Amino acid sequence: MPLPLTDSGRARGGAATAAEPGAAAGPSGAPGCATGVRWQLLLEPQGRSGPQNMAVDVALLERADRMGEAFLRLYRFDPPCLSLGRNEAAAGYDRAAIARLGVDVVRRPTGGGSVWHEHELTYAAAAPIVTFGSLREAYHAIHERLATALRSLGADATLAVRRPPPPSTAFHRPASCFAIPAGGEIVVGVRKLVGSAQVRRGGAFLQHGSILLAGSQDLITAVSREPQAVSADTTLAAVLRRPVSFADVAQAIVAAWGDDITSTALHRPPPASTARFLDSVWTWRR
Q: How far apart are CA 18 and CA 25, in angstroms?
């Protein structure tokens, strides 16, 4: 079911939910809400390829830096895709296995580990850094909003406590973004439900991530050359013991976002920006 829109095109969510205890809230009640920010909502349930999705996210980042605009994009991947972190070593993956399985691969502009994008909702937030004050505050505030949305659906979503990393000898170096929850990430119990990463350009930031609806991250193990740490992921379907749709989660996120959100048209990214993420030299550069 699509998000209902008013005549002005402003998206309406469900009932507002309370901010996480101790979180900063603005006039709208959203955690980390910045006064006077108008977010442009880009809702894409139909899906795009990995290179197209990364090109759109980068285009939003560039516009946030150049024009001072703020964007919230909710989307999916079609076909399913394996994304690698910007600085992740490509040598750890078996390209023959990837080809045999017919897996699409893209390298993200953001850091972190790999993610298998299939049964999920992917979010992207691009805005001037001053919207939240700093990159760290943006990371925390966006996760607070997403956790509020997930709690409204019935998931006991919280932000992971910051802990020292385990000794390097204790685990194989994880490739999967969902292998080990880090401080400030969204978990249910000890299992990671949302994987996120950030990148900065000038005075703006892009933060995007995957909210797992169903399925698993097992494909990453199937195409890796080295053994992986046991995945610590979970999905909304597993947590709630019922199917959860893209539309359900999108509706909850918009309701929890709190700031003034206006639906906006999305133009196809310039061919040059898509070409970068199609280039095998970029994908397998490390």
A: 10
Contact of 77 with 55, CB cutoff 8 Å: no
pLDDT bin (cut points 50, 70, 90) of residue 271 is confident
20 belongs to a structural domain: no
177 among known catalytic residues: yes
The residue-averaged pLDDT of 25-48 equals: 71
Write out the two tokens for 76.
């999916």
Q: What angle do CA 259, 263, 264 make, to 5 degrees?
A: 125
Q: What's the Cα-to-Cα distance from 256 to each of 11, 67, 161, 167, 273, rounded to whole Å?
A: 12, 25, 22, 37, 32
* Paired residues of 5 in beta bridges: 11
The answer for residues whose C-beta is within 8 angstroms of residue 264's C-beta and 6 or more apart is 9, 40, 41, 42, 71
Mean pLDDT of 1-8: 28
Q: Which of 34, 43, 58, 177 is catalytic?
A: 177
Between CA 72 and CA 244 the distance in angstroms is 21
Take residue 43 and report the two structure tokens written for it. Answer: 């809702």
Which range marks the domain in which residue 92 is found?
Answer: 38-279
CATH number of residue 261's parent domain: 3.30.930.10
Q: How many domains does the chain have?
A: 1
pLDDT digits (tens, 9 = 90+) for 54-69: 999 999 999 999 999 9
State which amino acid sits at residue 144.
E
Q: How far is it, in rounded angstroms, from Cα 152 to Cα 209?
A: 19
